[in-house]
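> forwarded from #structure-qc
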C-alpha cells in the first residue's frame, strides 16, 4: 500500500495524464495513434479509482483532524469533480446512457474534466506550500525517486491497466453498446439514418 505522499504523487500523474489524453482524444483519426490515446485515457481515468482506497485513508485522516486545513472545502469540491468526471467517462464509454436531461453525458464529462484544472492546480499549490514549510522545518528535502517508489509506481500502472482491461471485458460480456465503439471511443448511432447524433468524432 503506497504511503500518503506517494498516493498523492500517483494521483497527480494520473490526473495530468487523463487531462492531456482527454484533450487529445478526438485529435487523432488513425487507429495507430488514436487507439492508444483512447486506451491511455481510459487507463489513467480508471487508475484514479484504483487509488481511491489509499486516498480514502488520506482523506479520512484529514477530515478527522480537530482543525481542518485551510481550503479543505475545495479539496472536497475536487473530489466531487473527479468522481463526476470518471463516472460520466465510464457512462459515456458504456454507451448505456447518452443524455442527462438536456445535456449529453459527454458534455458533462468534458465540462467536469475542464473544471478540474483550476481546482486541482490550487489544491496542488497549497499542498506544495505546506510541504515546503514542513521539509524546511525538518531540514530534509524530497530527493530523487527511490526504488520503492518506482516499484509502487509500476504496481499502480499495472493495476490501472488491469482494471481498464477488466472494465472493457465487462462491457463485452454484458453486451453493452460500448463494447463495439470505434477506436476513437465514439459510438455508431447514425449510419444510414438522416438524423445524425449531436456530437461526432
Ligand atoms: C481529469 C479529467 C478526466 C478524467 C478523470 C477522465 C476519465 C475518463 C474515463 C474513466 C473514461 C472511460 C474510459 C474507458 O472506458 O475506456 C473517459 C472517457 C472519455 N473521456 Fe475522459 N476524463 C477526463 C477528461 C476528459 C476531457 C478533458 C475530455 C475531452 C476534452 C475527455 C473525453 C473523453 C472521451 C471522448 C471519452 C470516451 C472515450 C472512450 O469511449 O473510450 N475526458 N474519461
Amino acid at each position: 500500500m503506497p504511503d500518503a505522499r506517494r498516493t498523492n504523487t500517483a494521483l497527480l500523474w494520473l490526473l495530468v495524464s487523463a487531462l492531456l489524453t482527454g484533450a487529445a482524444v478526438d485529435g487523432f483519426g488513425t487507429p495507430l495513434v488514436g487507439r492508444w490515446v483512447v486506451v491511455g485515457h481510459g487507463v489513467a481515468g480508471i487508475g484514479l479509482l484504483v487509488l481511491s482506497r489509499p486516498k480514502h485513508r488520506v482523506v479520512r485522516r484529514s477530515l478527522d483532524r480537530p482543525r481542518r486545513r485551510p481550503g479543505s472545502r475545495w479539496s472536497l469540491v475536487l473530489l466531487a469533480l473527479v468522481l463526476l468526471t470518471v463516472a460520466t467517462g465510464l457512462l459515456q464509454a458504456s454507451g448505456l446512457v447518452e443524455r442527462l436531461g438536456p445535456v449529453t453525458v459527454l458534455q458533462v464529462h468534458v465540462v467536469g474534466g475542464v473544471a478540474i484544472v483550476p481546482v486541482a492546480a490550487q489544491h496542488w499549490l497549497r499542498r506544495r506550500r505546506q510541504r515546503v514549510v514542513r521539509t524546511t522545518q525538518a531540514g530534509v528535502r524530497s530527493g530523487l525517486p527511490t526504488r520503492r517508489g518506482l516499484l509502487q509506481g509500476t504496481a499502480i500502472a499495472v493495476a490501472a491497466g488491469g482494471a481498464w482491461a477488466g472494465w472493457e471485458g465487462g462491457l463485452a460480456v454484458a453486451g453493452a453498446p460500448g463494447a463495439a465503439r470505434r477506436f476513437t471511443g465514439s459510438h455508431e448511432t447514425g449510419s444510414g439514418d438522416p438524423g445524425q447524433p449531436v456530437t461526432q468524432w
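QC bot note: Residues 15, 18-19, 22-23, 25, 38, 41-42, 45-46, 48, 85-86, 89-90, 92-93, 109-110, 113-114, 116, 167, 181, 185 surround protoporphyrin IX containing FE (CB under 6 Å). Residues 4-180 form one domain.
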